[in-house]
What does this fold into?
Amino acid sequence: METASQSRKILVAIKRVVDANVRIRVKPDGSGVVLDGVKLSINPFDAIAIEEALRIKEKGGADEVIIATIGPADCQATLRNALAMGAQRALHVVADAPLEPLAVARVFLKLIERENPFLVILGKQAIDDDNNQTGQMLAALWNRPQATFASKIELSGQTAKVTREVDAGLETLEVDLPAVITTDLRLNEPRFVKLPEIMKAKTKPLATLSLQELAPGAGGAPRVKVLKTEPPPGRQRGILVKDANELFAELSKRGLV
Amino acid sequence: MSKVLVIAEHANGRLNASTAKSVKAATTLAGAEVVVATFTTAGSPIAAEAAKLAGVAKVLDVTNAANEHALAATLAPQVAEVAAGFTHVFAPSTTFGKDLMPRVAALLDAPQVSDIMSIQSATTFRRPIYAGNAITTVEVAAGSIVVGTIRTASFEAAAAGGSAPVETKVSSAALPAHTRFIGLSSAGGDRPDLQSASRVISGGRALASSDAFKIIYSLADKLGAAVGASRAAVDAGYVPSDMQVGQTGKIIAPELYIAIGISGAIQHLTGIKDARTIVAINKDGEAPIFEIADIGIVGDLFTIVPELEKLIDASRK
It folds into this structure.
């Protein structure tokens, strides 16, 4: 008989970020970007991670999809959204201050040790800090394979074949499971959540965990401190030309053709 | 004094241009000794090529049969092994460096600074967040190795002309066998690599078909340019996804960028705003692309592009 520890689990680690459609503003005093009253959503790459985990489960490749996040109390709304997409349960590690990627990886490693997933999927980066670090760090701490920037995942037995979007084109790796995979944009298109699913998600299990108990020390002072945040230098509007002849003349003048 | 280890990126027996840019970045750290580490198989010419980069004090060539393909899982323990004694470990912020360096940082228990745009001091760096819509200045706490990835668009390439000594080292790090390279398919063909090309021509949704991209390719070939596309063109299926330029695709900084039939969504502009000269061809004079274009032309791309190509042809006769 299958025991709980033998059930095939996928852990999906997500982050709540400023919604991708919000045009962010830098605070005039340089202390950061304006977050008050701004719409927050699941990091888009993490939504792709959830979708991929659900598709694997729906094809019979997994028994359970578990969503985990680290953040303040109101992050639970984000987890409920993830549950409404179809995940079975959620883990909320409560932390009021943001953690840096290596600390985040340490916390997720603790969750891996509790849950024993055969696969961990994360977005390749969060669209706020754009660090692109957590998945790789987690794989290193766990001493397991990583396949970053995935655009295709094929599971077979104890291995996964992952196509990666690299600068030179598409690279294919084979990794032994368990492994960490991070998602790129074209892996899939996340599903829209339907109203009945939102209702159902309200009663799905959501466990709250203390950061201090789970990973003592992970909440320590960050080693990379932000001193100042500024808007990027702007580009000036240039000239308008009226036809191909003028365009060619202008390009020639600047030594560009 | 700072001692900077730069991890070389290479493929097919050649150094990637991103390596020279990372070396250049390292040399902007005042008084730094810059050592390049090449992770190769025995007999590779890569270390000798790296030794020619100006500003390099030494090349450390770490050979191992496992280095035939650049896999983060097998490279990271080797990088961590040679990183002892260095104050900084840098690699380009390409998919190679982005994949590798956080794994290295975790093995070294070091913080990482991603996408370094400028180096203010040994501990202070500038880097973009929110897809370049804000720039932060960050400070790394004293007492740990700084792992960093270098935003290649922010630095020129180190010049040739150096002649650093090459020290060969056989790695004794235990390497995992759990990750295996299967293959690489590249889309570019004979055209320059989109990421590093000095000229790039991109097409957008206004091309309206895969077939219509022919006029983009044709102009690009006349100019020796790489071809890119907007996300809208990729999503519409006109071109493959590895041609996407923008926040979620490739962030580039060519000498010349020509945006054809691209309206200029924020996420696209983020990917091109460091180009030296931006040219926009679009029939909508209100398109946001014109707000950042150095040279704009409002009109029908299907007329203008072939005409421009003919003018280029004529000028070369």
Notes: Chain B has a mean pLDDT of 94. Residues 199-315 of chain B form a domain with the Rossmann fold fold (CATH 3.40.50.1220).
